[in-house]
Every structure is written in structure tokens, then in C-alpha cells.
Amino acid sequence: MITTPLQKACFALLCLFVFTGINAQSNFKPGYVVTLMGDTLKGDIDNRSEKYNTLVCDFRNANSDATTSYHPDELKSYHIENGKYYVSYNRYDEVKDKVFLEYVYEGDLSIFYYTKDAEEHYFVAKDTTFVELIHKNVINGLAKKSERYKIQLRYLLKDHPAILDKIDRTKCYKSDLTDLAKAYQKLSSPSEAGKQFNSPRNKTITVNYGAYIAAGPSTIKTAERQIGSSDYNVDANLDFDKTVTYEVGAIVNFNLNFIGENKYAVLFTPSLNIAEYESDKERTLSPLRYIYKANVKFVTLKLPLSFKYSFYSSEWPVIPYFKLGGGAALYLSQKGEYNYRSTPLNNSSPSNDNVYNESLDSKGTTLKAILSAGAGIDFKTGKNLFTLGVNIEHGDTQFTGTRTDFMLQAGFIFK
After folding, report:
1. Which pLDDT belongs to residue 398?
2. Is CATH 2.60.40 correct for 205-414?
3. Which pTM value belongs to this model?
4. Domains of the chain, residue spans
5. 119-126: Cβ within 8 A, 24+ apart
6. Signal sequence: where (predicted)?
7. Within a 13 Å sphere around the CA of 25, how many CA atoms are in the beta-carbon half?
8. Mean pLDDT of 50-66
């Protein structure tokens, strides 16, 4: 049942996420396609994930709003302005899959790439040679890493022995192969520059914004009651049950591109949190039974700052991550009541006479430190990210004790 204002806000935000996720799939950018007849058509191209771009080119003509979906056997190539360049498999007999290959680097040594069914394929071209690099062997049905591609590269580039040491240090990734091709270009044609078609690495700090909702179990652990503690001391007589807490928040994502693009970030995620706890505790000390009850509702502004590391690969549609950090929890309001009473053990029903009642309402604000840790997965939806993960926060409470929230989070980061 959706009853509280915060629950209603979470539900509304969830609906927004679903709507945004559906519409975030499209990401049209200026570009052009080259037909099988050699005609160049200018317009907009839907730049989605690499897996999608390998299979389909969604093109929108400059003079029309209609979208045409081209498959690899229907085009020679397509190019996204200031971005990636794809060529059809039908230009090369060595390519067995019907795909668009990403033209990564053009020069005296050219680099091509595509991924299909979770398999990565890398090709190099030099003069009239076009060959796939062997970076995996299949043994008993299992794919294992292989360095045979280094033998292939050493043979192809043997005309410049100075490059051989760099080949030994080269991994079979787009970034490493591009660096190798650039180094070879300087040796073979120092007066002619090669061309890298994907956008150059951003080495600045960029900021993205988003929003999220979260919910999960929350516990407050109070100190054990000490002998001689007063029955009127609220802190000494609480034993809160586990409850469900809700929050809605914003995401400010500072990408530390100078360390590693799309991998390192600092997250500031302010949120409004609501949680309501109940405590019902009894102690028996003949001839009396002592009953302590309390309920309290907190509205808290959380201000965590986290360091996030993403296991990013431009080829993957999903990006695992983990984060660690800390911050502050500002308790904006506290409402509740503490009730203590005692009743003789020989009574069949407890007395309704209250011995002591105390309001737990507090209008003041209190700042408490918190620690946080989390992990999850970011899903590529066009250029935006749908993020899903878990987060644990731990810190002091208004009472003498600690609070731990274990939250399931879902949100969007907009780019």
C-alpha cells in the first residue's frame, strides 16, 4: 500500500524511470551512410551500444522523420559525425559474420573490430593483407587466451624492427592496438598522420546528473541495558524491530577522466530518507513485569560522498561497479513516544495504568557521521545509464546506538 508522501514520490519517480528508459534507447547523431551503389546519404544515425551498431544502422534522412533500418548486406558503410565509422563485412572475404565492422584506425596499419555473441574479433590490414588476430584458442569447447596475435603482428610489421618490443607489450584490445598502429605510422610514414575514428579520450573532469529511488531493511542497535539503569531512561530500554526504510535522491557523478575515462568517479548522492521503528520490550523481576514500548519516525537528509570504480569496457552493455565512502546524516525531524509501565505477575492481564509516558518528538536537527559501501551494475541505454545496485550505510542514531540501512537502489544517470 502506497501511503506516505515519500512512498508516493518513489512510485512517481519509478514511473519516470520506466518512461525515460524506454525513450532513452534512441540516441540520434549527425552522420551519413554509403549505399551499395556508392551514393552518400546525409542525415542522423542512432548511436546505440556497440553490439547493436554492429548489427543494424538506424538512419533518419535529413528531409524526413522516418527511420530506415539498414543491415550489413544493405550498405557499404556508415559514419557517425565526430564518432565511429562502420564498414560492411561484404568488403572483406575474411569476415564470416554478416556484421558492420568498426573501423577503429586508418593508416599504414589499420584496425577493425566487432563483437558478436560475446566474442570479440580484431582485424588488421596492411597493404593488401587483411587478417583476423588470433587472441583466443578453443580447447575442449572452452575459449582460452592466446598470444598468437603477437606472432602475426611481428610478421606483418617486420619491416620496422624498432616496433617489435612494443608488440610484446601490446594486449589485444582496441586501445592497445590503436597505440601500436600510431607508433607504426610514425616509423613507416612520419610525414603522414593516420586517422582514429572514435572520439579521442577525454582527460578532464566531467559531471553527469541523475536521480534514484531506494528501499530496504533498516535496523537500530542500542546498547545493552546496564544494571541499575532507570526505567525512565529511554536509551536504556529500547529494542527496535527491523523495519523498511525508503528514500529518493539525486546523483551528481564527477567522472575523473584524467585517471581513466568511464572508470573512476566521485559520487555525491544527497537523498531524503524516511523510516519508522517500533520497540516492545519486557523484563520480569518478581513480583512485577516491566513493559517498555516506543515508536519513533525519522526524516533524514543523507549527504554521502563515495569513490566509484567501474569495470568499464566499451564493448559491454553492462558495467559492474563498486563504491566506498562516507558522509553525514542530518536528522531533520523525529516524532514518537516512549511508554513504560509495570504490572504484578499474578494479574491475568497487564494494567492499563501508564506509569510513565515521554514524547520523543524533536524539532531540532542533529548531524551524524555515516560510512557507506555498495556494488551494482550500470546498464547502457543509449548514452544514458540505468543503474541498479545495493548500498549499505552505517552510523550513529539519535539514540545511544547505531543504525544500519541495507538499500536496493535503482536510478538513471543522464549523459
Report:
1. 82
2. no
3. 0.60
4. 23-196, 205-414
5. 119/143, 120/315, 121/97, 122/149, 122/172, 122/174, 122/177, 123/92, 123/94, 123/95, 124/152, 124/153, 124/156, 124/177, 124/181, 126/156, 126/157
6. 1-24
7. 7
8. 87
